[in-house]
Amino acid sequence: MNVNSNxxxxxxxxxxxxxxxxxxxxxATGLKPAQDANIELEKKANILSSIGLQAEDAAAMYDEVIKxxxxxxxxxxxxxxxxxxxxxxxAIALPEADRExxxxxxxxxxxxxxxxxxxxxxxxxxxxGYISLQSDGxxxxxxxxxxxxxxxxxxxxxxxxxxxxxxxxxxxxxxxxTGIEVRKGxxxxxxxxxxISGGTITSVGVQAMLENCLKPYQAFLAARxxxxxxxxxxxxxxxxL
Amino acid sequence: MSTEVKPQEKERLFSKKNRKLLxxxxxxxxxxxxxxxxxxxxxxxxxKMKPALVMGLSVIxxxxxxxxxxxxxxxxxxxxxxxxxQLVVVAALVIIVDxxxxxxxxxxxxxxxxxxxxxxxxxxxxxxxxxxxxxxxxWKSFLDGIGNGAGYGAIxxxxxxxxxxxxxxxxxxxxxxxxxxxxxxxxxxxxxxxLPPMALxxxxxxxxxxxxxxxxxxxxE
Lengths: 241, 221
Fold this sequence. Notes:
By secondary structure, chain A is an alpha+beta fold. Chain A contains 7 helices and 8 strands. Chain A has a domain at 103-232. A 6-stranded antiparallel sheet of chain A has the order 2-1-3-4-5-6. In chain A, strands 7-8 form a two-stranded parallel ribbon. The N and C termini of chain A lie far apart (80 Å). Chain B has a two-stranded antiparallel sheet with strand order 1-2. Chain B has 10 helices and 2 strands. Chain B has one domain (32-217). By secondary structure, chain B is mainly α. The interface between A and B is medium-sized, with 20 and 20 residues.
């Protein structure tokens, strides 16, 4: 057999590629469940860390602390939908009224926290994170950001405590979204944080991300924290029964 | 790691010559310090011991099995598409390693990020296939792969040891300097150790130490 003939070369190449493709397909499908579990676990750990919790076993703690996982649209709960089914990257591109957004409600040490996933654009790629609000649904309790490919030492600093520690106690809602402004050097009061020197575009990206992602929650959180509408919900539930 | 390859030769499995294949890359033909291959990844992932160890193991697996596979099919590979065949084999192995890391050591795989994928471009692997496994029987090639991967990993570990110890005061994330009371003597974690330039300098120091021990490596003139 002439291993250097054209037909042999083609046959060999095709055969090799088929074998390799099969091996890769088997590996990919076989390992998918374990990989998905890891991604899910990391997400849970991130959600927990936005309210300052860190656990060896994030899954168990998550089940214990997170009381409700809601999907909201236009300030109303969409029944029968789980946050897991939502692709945040696609959701944030939609107009606010058409958007379905996830909300996690946590209870820890007798306090209620609302945890909101956020996602936006940095300089080089997506940035994302979780913002937790205190039980009044207006004041930030904690923030955690991460990024795909921001510049280390500059934009990437949004993921460090130096940046995120500024967020607690900022007020994001009054009657409307009041927001958090990322300032250059002279941040003061409860609506401004200091941006990152040399990371201006990423810092501005954080500001835009917060505005875009937090706004849709305003109606729901306001309604939930006013006693009267809750009573209505109860009546409705009774009526539905 | 075990191997099921039956030796075809009359030679014993771990004859002197075969043992040399395993041990040489640790010193006289070390891929990093002597052949100067795979430097890029050696600089990038030696900030901490754990990623360095996992990277070392990953490279051992890839070099060993890519050597083994190419050696097994070496007489059937059409010469004209030799390099492409090597690439396909190496790329497939790297993807499998990457998938396994993602499934079982997710945090480490995140730290290694792009460098696992870049094992494909690690010159050590293609170098060993071209230079060794295409002309040698499978068992020898397998040993050669393990030897070279381990030689690479060993240097990574040495560099990472000093960088993590002096830069973060820990080893495998376990605090070392603090219990020893080194901080009370006035030592502060050296942030420079965590930056790439120090990896280069550490590597140079390793090469220096190795050459003063092994005189045969010193170039004449």
